[in-house]
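Much of the work behind modern protein science is quiet bookkeeping, done one molecule at a time. The fold becomes a row of whole numbers, each drawn from a learned catalogue of backbone shapes. The protein below has been through that process, and both of its lines are reproduced in full.
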Amino acid sequence: MLSASNINLYYGASHTLRGVSLTAKKGTVTCLLGRNGVGKTSLLRALFGLQPIRTGRIDWEGEDLTRRAPHDRARHGMALVPQGREIFARLTVGENLETGYAALKRSDRNVPDEIFELFPVLKSMLGRRGGDLSGGQQQQLAIGRALVTRPRLLVLDEPTEGIQPSIIKDIGNVIRRLRDRGDMAILLVEQYYDFAHELADEILVMDRGEVVLSGTRDALDEDDVRRYLTV
């Protein structure tokens, strides 16, 4: 289980995260919802050690990772699919997937066949440059690259952003399949309520750097949640 407790994060004098806590359990999808600018990506940066926190604690699989370096967290089975995908445009699809090897022991450095089962389009495009792919194909590549690391925690930062509906449906099916394996915790960060509600077991809603609503998918009132998502 991932457990983040009482996370406080500052950018200079700006208090960006205010006592944020969350958990994400294996075999479940935990969804973090909120408008732009409420602190969702800052929380992910804190979880992965990309931004130091002022106070709080981050545990993964019972081990305190609060002060560990980002590469060490990756080696502990944490993987992030960043907002905007951040694939390498000049590298081929195959080379992009191989960048996931950095977190692996030499004996594990291969691309699992499951990735091509989940995203068949990637197998037919291994020699194409990442920058030549459509937005939806790049998103599939970004998720595939994360899965190369054999994560036990998969974090997806707004995977539906700028993606055509057919690919959104495919990504949703992949998330369900990974959840149902039971050996992976999935943290999904979204603004798109319908997509999140369909997949989530647990939902947290952020506003102004704080968690303002949390509960199971069925326990939360839809109108209350949507009120924090509208501009």
